[in-house]
């Protein structure tokens, strides 16, 4: 198996396409496909325009996380400030917007960390992950349907939350592990 993401993909052949749902946040397609290697099947695919997330790091090294209720898992979740990209918005613009909206910080530096698929088994969402530093307070602007609690943690406290199962959300796990790796160099 090659891990060269620059290699051109072997395209599946679309045999039949049905858009089951077209929504504000996502679309759902059911496609009958013939995949490379001769595998034929029905694939339910969530189509999403992409998302952004940022790990805010304060000057003293503490990280900022948000806690909000997530209906899909019926739980309050500690995670990075994050959200969907707006139409026409670059990943950097989206990350800056989410930082201001959710935690009330404007970053003087936004370092790209990683671009990854969140759940490629059934979704085409591409997440752009950043590290935000040089944070200046601005008034937060949460969306009308968001009730967000922001808190700061040392990296050690956040990693302990991971071990205890208090942080279980994927992009946040990735960002915290990358931050731990960065600091251990």
Task: Tell me what the structure shows.
The protein has 185 residues and is α+β, with helices and mostly antiparallel strands. It is 21% helix and 42% strand. A 4-stranded mixed β-sheet has the order 7-4-9-8, with helices on both faces. The protein has a 3-stranded antiparallel β-sheet with strand order 1-2-3, with no helix packed on it. The protein is elongated. The two termini are 30 Å apart. The model has no long low-confidence stretch (mean pLDDT 93).
What Rg, in angstroms, do the CA atoms define? 18 Å
Strand content: 35-45%
Tell how many strands the DSSP assignment holds: 10
The termini sit apart by 30 Å
Shape: elongated
Most strands sheet? 4 strands, mixed
Question: How is this fold's topology laid out?
Answer:
Blueprint (H helix, E strand, L loop, with lengths): L12 E10 L4 E8 L5 E8 L3 E6 L6 E8 L4 E5 L2 E3 L6 H13 L1 E13 L8 E12 L11 E5 L1 H10 L5 H15 L1
Parallel strand pairs: 4-9
Antiparallel strand pairs: 1-2, 2-3, 4-7, 5-6, 5-10, 8-9
Quick structural overview:
With 185 residues, the protein is an alpha+beta fold. The chain is built from 3 helices and 10 strands, in the order E-E-E-E-E-E-E-H-E-E-E-H-H. The model has no long low-confidence stretch (mean pLDDT 93).
Tags for this entry?
single chain, about 180 residues, alpha+beta, three-stranded antiparallel sheet, 3 helices, about 20% helix
């Amino acid at each position: 198996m090659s891990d060269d993401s620059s290699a051109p993909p072997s395209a599946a052949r679309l045999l039949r396409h049905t858009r089951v749902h077209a929504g504000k946040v996502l679309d759902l397609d059911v496609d009958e496909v013939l995949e490379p290697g001769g595998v034929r099947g029905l694939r339910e695919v969530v189509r999403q325009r992409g998302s952004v997330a940022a790990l805010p790091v304060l000057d003293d090294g503490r990280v900022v996380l948000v806690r909000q209720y997530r209906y899909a898992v019926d739980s309050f979740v500690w995670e990075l400030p994050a959200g969907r990209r707006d139409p026409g918005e670059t990943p950097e613009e989206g990350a800056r917007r989410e930082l201001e909206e959710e935690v009330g910080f404007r970053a003087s530096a936004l370092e790209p960390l990683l671009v990854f698929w969140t759940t490629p088994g059934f979704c085409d969402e591409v997440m752009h992950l950043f590290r935000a530093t040089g944070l200046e307070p601005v008034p937060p602007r949460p969306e009308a349907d968001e009730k967000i609690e922001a808190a700061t943690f040392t990296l050690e406290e956040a990693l302990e939350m991971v071990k205890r199962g208090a942080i279980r959300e994927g992009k946040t796990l990735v960002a915290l592990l990358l931050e731990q790796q960065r600091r251990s160099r």
